[in-house]
Amino acid sequence: MGISSSNPLASFKKFSRERGVKLFVAGLDAAGKTSMMYRLKNFQQNSAEFEYGVYNYCENIWIQNIYFINLDLGGVMRFKDLFQLSYQENIKGIIFVVDSSDRDRIEDAKSDFQEILRQELLSGIPVLILANKQDLPGVMTVDEIKEKFELFLIRGRSWYLQGCSMITNNGLSEGLEWLSRAIQSDS
Ligand SMILES: Nc1nc2c(ncn2[C@@H]2O[C@H](COP(=O)(O)OP(=O)(O)O)[C@@H](O)[C@H]2O)c(=O)[nH]1
Ligand SMILES: [Mg+2]
């Protein structure tokens, strides 16, 4: 399996370490968010450990010069409450991770995604949608997810949909490269 040896966060090195950049990672539980964090962390030495809040659905971590706020959606609490609890200013980019194998919950994922887009605090912020678990057979294709999420309706922000796998590491670098470019052309 083509495991890439280059750092998927290389494109973020342009952002100064001093100022850093804050990214908001969200998706239903089991989408692959924590796997992504470990995948990215493996490329770093001496990076901080996960910093869990009072609640186990939010894990925050510095990797390289990036502060990730990683939120599990789809639980008992509404997204709004979750977002307020974990709320941080100055989020520059959103990564929404979708489990492409989870057809049963694709509508739940979509409604959480749309709620994120409705947050005033996140308005205009570029969003990367990762159609994860593309290594599994028979999963929803990138085109299928694009349709289901009605991405063509998005206005007023840049977005990008990338198929990927946190197991084979395919697609992650491409997605993050897009996000780093989108953030830079935003500011
Ligand atoms: N086949 C496959 N499994 C994955 C992938 N990403 C995550 N998983 C598995 O999905 C489960 C949930 O992943 P996790 O990262 O904990 O999801 P989170 O709840 O979003 O943080 C774990 O068993 C992972 O090993 C992927 O790309 N392909
Ligand atoms: Mg997790």
Automatic annotation (TrEMBL):
SUPFAM superfamilies reported in the protein's UniProt record: P-loop containing nucleoside triphosphate hydrolases (SSF52540)
Pfam families documented for this protein: Arf
Entry keyword annotation includes Nucleotide-binding: yes
Keywords, comma-separated and alphabetical: GTP-binding, Magnesium, Metal-binding, Nucleotide-binding
Single GO MF annotation: metal ion binding
Superkingdom of origin: Eukaryota
Binding site for GTP: 27-34, 75, 132-135
UniProt-listed SMART domains: ARF, SAR
Binding site for Mg(2+): 34
InterPro entries: P-loop_NTPase, Small_GTP-bd, Small_GTPase_ARF, Small_GTPase_ARF/SAR
Keyword hit for Magnesium: yes
Segments traversing the membrane: none
Similarity comment: Belongs to the small GTPase superfamily. Arf family.
Family matches, as PANTHER family: ADP RIBOSYLATION FACTOR-RELATED
Protein's UniProt name: ADP-ribosylation factor
Organism: Blepharisma stoltei
